[in-house]
């Protein structure tokens, strides 16, 4: 018996292409909810409600379709309509059944994460800077890049952070090597 050996890249995609989904629906699925399997890893719901569908010229090997959707990513609805075109060929979409839509599409308000204003330096760097400056425990200010979907920020003056940032080496791979050492 011959064995099969797969060569090439593997994908994490599960599902069908948008072309396959909207092609089999009445009115091309306008008003229906589609979920991208890649986004199901988040605890908040991510889904797209189809508003408009346009077919694109058939370019082998991928069949693409331009779909205009109301996008909800991680529980936050996008203020503008979004066009999906370049990723429509990926076999990573699934259609929600009508009885599943109401329970799946409940918007959940994510809690805002508040980070401290400053964090400790790594131990060796902290030692070098302490010798240079004479400060016993130097700290570095946190700079956060605010993104479109971000729900985190740096604490204001006098505000209590909700996230604890600690500088440590974590759980060692071989704890016996660190027996008797202070971690």
Fraction of residues in H or I helices:
10-25%
Number of domains: 2
- The beta-strand count equals 10
Largest sheet: 6 strands, antiparallel
**What is the element string, with H for helices and E for strands?**
HEEEEEEHEEHEE
Protein name: 28S ribosomal protein S34, mitochondrial
InterPro entries: Ribosomal_mS34
Pfam family, one: MRP-S34
GO cellular component, one term: mitochondrion
Question: Topology, please?
Answer:
Elements: H1 18-23, E1 33-36, E2 47-55, E3 65-73, E4 76-77, E5 82-84, E6 93-95, H2 98-104, E7 113-115, E8 118-120, H3 123-133, E9 139-141, E10 152-154
Parallel strand pairs: 7-10
Antiparallel strand pairs: 1-2, 1-6, 2-3, 3-4, 3-5, 8-9
Explain what this protein looks like in three dimensions.
The chain has 183 residues and is α+β, with helices and mostly antiparallel strands. The chain folds into 2 domains: 16-103; 111-170, no CATH class. The protein has helices spanning 18-23, 98-104, 123-133, and strands spanning 33-36, 47-55, 65-73, 76-77, 82-84, 93-95, 113-115, 118-120, 139-141, 152-154. The strands form 3 sheets. Strands 1, 2, 3, 4, 5 and 6 form a 6-stranded antiparallel β-sheet that branches. The model has no long low-confidence stretch (mean pLDDT 84). This is 28S ribosomal protein S34, mitochondrial. InterPro entries: Ribosomal_mS34. It holds the Pfam family MRP-S34. GO terms for molecular function: structural constituent of ribosome. One of its GO terms (cellular component) is mitochondrion.
